[in-house]
Amino acid sequence: MSGTILILGACGQIGTELTLALREKYGNEHVVASDIRRSDLPELQNGPFEILDASDASAMRAVCEKYQVHTLYHLVAMLSATGEKFPMKAWDLNMQSLLHALELAREGVIQKIFWPSSIAVFGPTTPKENTPQQTIMEPSTVYGISKLAGERWCEYYFKKYGVDVRSIRYPGLISWKSQPGGGTTDYAVEIYYKAIEEGRYTAFLSEYRALPMMYMDDAIRATIELTEAPAEKVKVRSSYNLAGISFDPVTIAASVAKYVDGFTMDCVPDFREEIAASWPASIDDSKAQEDWNWTPKYDLDSMTQAMLENLKVKLGK
User: What is the DSSP string of the chain?
Assistant: First the structure.
């Protein structure tokens, strides 16, 4: 690696773990964490940290120039469930912050961008099973609309200006290290906390609502692998499909019950059920496998074991 890495949104669910992984790989001083407010997370105190509003183009430029940033991981976004409550704020944040980054790359201030898309780019008309890399995309949430527009901008900047931008359509991400951030797939994190603390959980999706999911360790590895792949191997410049595990609430509850005696779950769907109903149930990621040799390491039970073991330590149970 040459130059410095900057992470926008380093205090978020993905950003926290990506910062840790990259600092472990490249050294604390080579990875600058940033977010809109200072973090009290001890994990982020061992290297440079900048308070940065990603919607402020001049502030982003100043930080990139200060640290001579080579690679930018742009993780700032308002997620699906929160975005439905504040649609204009979500659109403005999600789109403007990306365009600021793309412009910095076009001008040569930075050399490479990783920007995450999401399964939210798909919609009710998208094939539900083994959703292809290229397919009908008619998202029905402001989050999904902003991510689809972002994909088009990324590909445009690559084709028009040669900007080296790379992207993954993340499925739902499951982690024990940081709290979920207002997404429709958050139930698959909450269920582990409630299993340990209360022995039961009420899911906000219907019992057979299957969604694509992934353990965070796999997602972080995929992010770094794609960002560091030789440019000639990155054939998709909109965003890659990425698959890990697909399951519904009943299936994950059965997995939890294998390791937590007496665990029970019921389902009381809320507004997030409608969002989830518009998304795929499973993803075809053969293009990522073919182009940069992607393969997940965790299945549902190995993820459940890792989540429960780590959360018991974290929660002191």
Answer: --SEEEEETTTSHHHHHHHHHHHHHH-GGGEEEEESS----GGGSSS-EEE--TT-HHHHHHHHHHHTEEEEEE-----HHHHHHSHHHHHHHHHHHHHHHHHHHHTTS-SEEE--EEGGG--TTS-SSSB-SS------SHHHHHHHHHHHHHHHHHHHH---EE-EEE-EEE-SSS---S-TTTHHHHHHHHHHHTSEEEESS-TT--EEEEEHHHHHHHHHHHHHS-GGG---SS-EE---EEE-HHHHHHHHHTTSTT-EEEE---HHHHHHHTS-SSB--HHHHHHH-------HHHHHHHHHHHHHHHHT-
Calculate the CA 55 to chain-centre distance: 19
Using alpha carbons, select from 4, 255, 195, 254 the residue that is nearest to residue 110.
4
Is residue 148 domain-shared with residue 209, that is, in the same domain? no
CATH of the domain at 16: 3.40.50.720
Split at pLDDT 50, 70, 90, the class of 204 is: very high
pLDDT at position 82? 85
The model carries a pTM of 0.92
Q: Is residue 222 part of a domain?
A: no
Q: Is 201 marked active-site?
A: no
Residue 46 domain-assigned (yes or no) = yes
Among 26, 67, 73, 143, the active-site one is 143
pLDDT of residue 1: 52
d(CA 112, CA 198): 45
CA 231 to chain centre: 22
Cα separation, 43 vs 30, in Å, equals 15
- 157-194 pLDDT, tens per residue? 999 999 999 999 999 899 998 776 677 888 999 999 99
| Region 57-66 average pLDDT | 98
Look at residue 89 and tell me if it is in a domain. Answer: yes
Average pLDDT taken over every residue of the chain: 94
Q: How many domains does the chain have?
A: 2
